[in-house]
Amino acid sequence: MGVCPSATVSLLRDNFTGALHPWARPEVLTCTPWGAPIIWDGTFDPDVAQQEASQQNLTIGLTVFAVGRYLEKYLERFLETAEQHFMVGQRVVYYVFTERPGAVPRVALGPDRRLRVERVVRERRWQDVSMARMRTLHAALGGWLGREAHFVFCMDIDQHFSGAFGPEALAESVAQLHSWHYHWPRWLLPFERDARSAAALTRGEGDFYYHAAVFGGSVAALRGLTAHCALGLAWDRARGLEARWHDESHLNKFFWLHKPAKVLSPEFCWSPDIGPRAEIRRPRLLWAPKEYRLLRD
Ligand code: 2GW
Ligand code: MN
């Protein structure tokens, strides 16, 4: 487990000049209480991260689901911008899960980057489309994806890359701070509170509210995560329950029980609807505007 040495207050200023250390972000939390780094722009050297990853000769997986109208609406831009910003310089394999493999757009890929398309059945309710991802991911991680990738990121598709999302984000398990909730008091966070749900957290529980639009880690860690969430979802369903934020509620329960080794600041998955914020320097992913009324029928 990490110890976040760069976040130690005594290291923020130069002993001689008193100047702020060039990698300091004193205005934000850069270390969790359990010693995991919270990655903010300027707290890491991208070249060092790149070099370390290259030495390990990694293959990094990126999974997305593109079911129904989301395929035409989001997939092409997601992939095109991933080509510009996601793990550039590393070996990357995209996994697109869709019920219409033939409709996947042909996006020009850089060398050492490939795309695999896997067929999934289309769930009827949108909540089920979202929740079924955990089960499908678990199976994929136990199959081809798990054999060819070392680390995997699982993402929502209704977003696009806007800045470098590189190997500084890699770790055994990675959670994303939710951009709408990172500055909220803990007791107000929208965790599942119904004690009957497998996703339930009591008032004193929950470290941060994590966004299910981005999570990642080693294949082994993600096998555990997806198994936990898929079981919790099935357990709730069997008793007629559905957690408040579906798979995201179960993900938050998982990360409460199994602390992430790395946490990504909201810069890594930012909602432009929030407007400018001083601490958000360079967003890496931007949410597409929500068109719930149009799409959720
Ligand atoms: C989802 C909602 C309403 C209508 C359609 C869909 C839909 C989602 C769809 O028609 N096709 C599809 O492929 N999806 C996939 O599910 C797609 O990958 C999408 O990014 C993902 C989650 O749905 P999304 O992005 O519309 O939901 P958000 O942005 O409100 O997601 C948060 O909450 C979800 C649970 O309610 C998930 O936990 C998600 O990971 C969170 O970011
Ligand atoms: Mn989304």
What's the topology here?
Layout lengths: L37 E2 L6 H11 L2 E7 L4 H16 L5 E8 L14 E7 L6 H16 L2 H5 L2 E5 L3 E3 L11 E5 L32 E9 H20 L8 H11 L4 E3 L20 E3 L4 H4 L2
Parallel strand pairs: 1-9, 2-3, 2-5, 3-4, 7-9
Antiparallel strand pairs: 5-8, 6-10, 7-8
Helix pairs in contact: 3-5, 5-6
This protein binds 5-phenyl-uridine-5'-alpha-d-galactosyl-diphosphate and manganese (II) ion.
5-phenyl-uridine-5'-alpha-d-galactosyl-diphosphate binds next to β2, α3, β8 and α6.
Nutshell version of this structure?
The chain is an alpha/beta fold and 297 residues long. It has helices spanning 46-56, 70-85, 126-141, 144-148, 219-238, 247-257, 292-295; strands at residues 38-39, 59-65, 91-98, 113-119, 151-155, 159-161, 173-177, 210-218, 262-264, 285-287.
Characterise this structure:
By secondary structure, the protein is of the alpha/beta class. It has one domain (39-295): Spore Coat Polysaccharide Biosynthesis Protein SpsA, Chain A, CATH 3.90.550.10. Helices cover 28% and strands 18% of the residues. The chain has helices spanning 46-56, 70-85, 126-141, 144-148, 219-238, 247-257, 292-295, and strands at residues 38-39, 59-65, 91-98, 113-119, 151-155, 159-161, 173-177, 210-218, 262-264, 285-287. An eight-stranded mixed sheet has the order 1-9-7-8-5-2-3-4. Strands 6-10 form a two-stranded antiparallel sheet. Helix 2 (70-85) links the parallel strand 2 (59-65) and strand 3 (91-98). Helix 5 crosses helix 6 (247-257). The protein starts with 37 loop residues before the first strand and ends with a helix. 5-phenyl-uridine-5'-alpha-d-galactosyl-diphosphate binds next to strand 2, helix 3, strand 8 and helix 6.
